[in-house]
Amino acid sequence: MRKHSVLCLTLVLLLLGTLSFQLFLMGGVRAETSSTEPTVENTNTAGSTSTVTDELEQILNAQSTQQEQHQFQAEINQLLGILINSLYSNKDIFLRELISNASDALNKIRFLSLTDSSALNAYPELEIRVWADTTNNILKIRDSGIGMTKQDLINNLGTIAKSGTKAFIEKIQKEAQTSDSALIGQFGVGFYSVFLVASKVVVTTKNNDDKQLIWTSTADNTFTIIEDPRGDTLKRGSEITIYLKDDAKDYTSATKLKELIKKYSSFIHFPIYLHEVRTETEEVPIEEEETTTTTETTTEETTTPETTEEVKVEEEKKTEETPAAPKTKKVEKTVEEWNIMNENKPLWLRSPSNITEEEYIQFYRAMTAATEDPMMWDLFSAEGQVEFKSLLYVPAKAPYNMFDFTQKTNNIKLYVKRVFITDQGEDLLPRYLNFIKGLVDSEDLPLNVSRETLQHSKLLAMIKKKLLAKAIQILHELSEQDKAERKEREEKKEESKEGEEKKEEVKLTKYEKFWKEFGKNIKLGVIEDEKQRKKLVSMLRFTTSKTNESISLDEYVARKKEKQEQIYFISGMDMKEVESSPHMEEFKTRDLEVIYMIDPLDEYMTQQVTEYQGMKIQSIAKEDVKFPDEDLEKKKKDLESLTKEFETLTSIAQMLLKEKVSKVTISNRLSSAPAVLVSSSFGVSANMARIMKAQALGQEQGGMDWMMKLRTLELNANHPIIQNMNDLLKNNVNDDSLTNSINLVYDTASLLSGYDIEEKNKFATRIIASVNSQLAYKNNLAKENKKVEEVKTEEVKPEPVEKDEL
């Protein structure tokens, strides 16, 4: 807040500095009069004709004859410091501003050359050059633009908040009656950002209509202008020499300069060259003197042998052992070169019909530094109240931190007249589309004075709206193409099967690849974006009980059973859990398709989407499931009959489990399982309960216990366990064994239905007791059977016969 107050005060001082003291005094008198007028009593009596208006006229008349005119004064060095440090939050901005100014100067001379062919004679090339002197801590930026006359230097560089570019635009628009301009400057303060890093600035400039001049300033109260004693060295244009502050020495680094130019000015229309120095190694021939010296040294070192024969032998050995002297050697040399920094031209300014696929891919890789080709892209223009061009890409792979919403994304880059402004415009697209990369370029976006951030306005809101609509349209069109692609794939698959048994890997369609990477984003959009929800829901994909392929809700509805009123789904942790769920038994019997929802986001999504195309989206693990072609009257009678038969059992179970379930009933949806837990329409499913408990502080949620109790234990009247328990009650057996059996049935139903068991120790004790009881019973039965067999054996055992009798 303090920073904005200082900025506002500074701008007010600048704008009012040229106004007369008379206007200020008049305003003050009017304000004072206005403030005191309501307290004046009505004195319009018969003896008084004076009014407040008369008094005001007298004051104004006196002012017109006696007034003194004064101008506001300011300490320019302090004012400039406040202005610069209040406007800019990032020192790097200065290079963008200076290059933008250079681009404007080049555009101006280009405009003039359209009507005056001799304007470019002095220096035909239109370019920008940047180089640094690391030894003296100096940075230079030169352009071959229009240059400045002495009056331009006084008016534009000597007057804060006066934009020569803005005046030039107004002039050419007036003459040409057009608003089309590639000129960037508008506020008249961009040049002064150089003092963020400079202790002194020297501007050498040459205009076709003036001599070469030098403007110098150290950001104090004064600046100087002299005629350049060196004469005409520039031919045309301007050269800014920046004497860097001690804490800004890193701006002499070629690496740093390259990074900033590519970030902010990569799409400037004119070529930007950076002077770079590198060291390389090369092979050079060894001079004759060096070779001779080496040979002589070798000869001297051999020493003189006593005899000639020994000399010959020694020389022969040396010849065999000593390698030939090298003819070249490696030396390092310094290479200076000018490298172009903005080879990538603004692709979005061209017509889409003239851009090849390879160009789109190359531009994507250059813009994002990606190693993989994009999955899809779209270049479009928006017209109307706000005009802009945008190029959007969908990457092939999801980033590893896509759902880390604490990190600011920099996927959408914002340009104004091809000058980079910011990549922190996370509001341009909602967070569920944070994987989309691209750019937006506008001619008239509302920026703050520093051009670092956007101003919030109706134009910006319209850009966001159009950008979102286009992004959704791209993805929706891709989704619509998916069905045709899958049909074509199936046809090819059938053709390849004829006479072949070889199994080939299924080739995914483009949307299947997209869904694999970004399906969660679409689900998140369904949850968060109410306005786009209808389109996003049609893009959802699910596997079902009848297919391993992902299908849309439209496809599910198209192949539903006759008179089917609900879209059935079941949620769980994984495919095995949902496929083996007891809730699936009746649906398999009736051949009804059930959607498998195994993503945690699905649970939240179904809370927002309750119906589709007039069909209710129904969890088969909850109440109110309706089957098509069901005889409701017969079902009601059968259920009433079974309920009456098992009334005692359900009542006892209800009383025993009153803290865990809301009611116990007889089921009409089971065939093999003894029981199942069913959530009420307003309760939470087993999967949702797990998700809520897994969240931070999930078990402390106030309504959790209450919602967990909104469950029904449904008993399978046809299962032997339930029938045996009911028979025990008919025989007046109601002991601990029955209580344990009911609790065990409940615990088993919890596991089968996907719920956690609350009392795991008691469950384990019951299982152990049950196993022990069964084993003891079988052991006792085996002992009894053994005794019976022994008795039978003794009864039929023959008496022994003696040999004599034989």
UniProtKB/TrEMBL annotation:
Keyword Phosphoprotein attached: no
Biased composition (Low complexity): 292-306
Compositionally skewed regions (Acidic residues) per UniProt: 282-291
Leader sequence segment: 1-31
Skewed-composition ranges (Basic and acidic residues): 309-321
Gene Ontology MF term list: ATP binding; ATP hydrolysis activity; ATP-dependent protein folding chaperone; unfolded protein binding
Residues given in the record as ATP binding sites: 97, 101, 143, 148, 156, 162-164, 186-191, 451
InterPro entries on file: HATPase_C_sf (IPR036890), Heat_shock_protein_90_CS (IPR019805), HSP90_C (IPR037196), Hsp90_fam (IPR001404), Hsp90_N (IPR020575), Ribosomal_Su5_D2-typ_SF (IPR020568)
Superkingdom of the organism of origin: Eukaryota
Coiled coil: 632-659
Pfam families per the UniProt record, alphabetical: HATPase_c_3, HSP90
Keywords: ATP-binding, Chaperone, Coiled coil, Nucleotide-binding, Signal, Stress response
UniProt region (Disordered), positions on chain: 280-331, 483-502, 783-806
HAMAP family, per database record: HSP90
NCBIfam families, per the entry: PRK05218.1
Similarity-based family: Belongs to the heat shock protein 90 family.
Annotated protein name in UniProt: Heat shock protein 90
Organism: Naegleria gruberi
Lineage of producing organism: Eukaryota, Discoba, Heterolobosea, Tetramitia, Eutetramitia
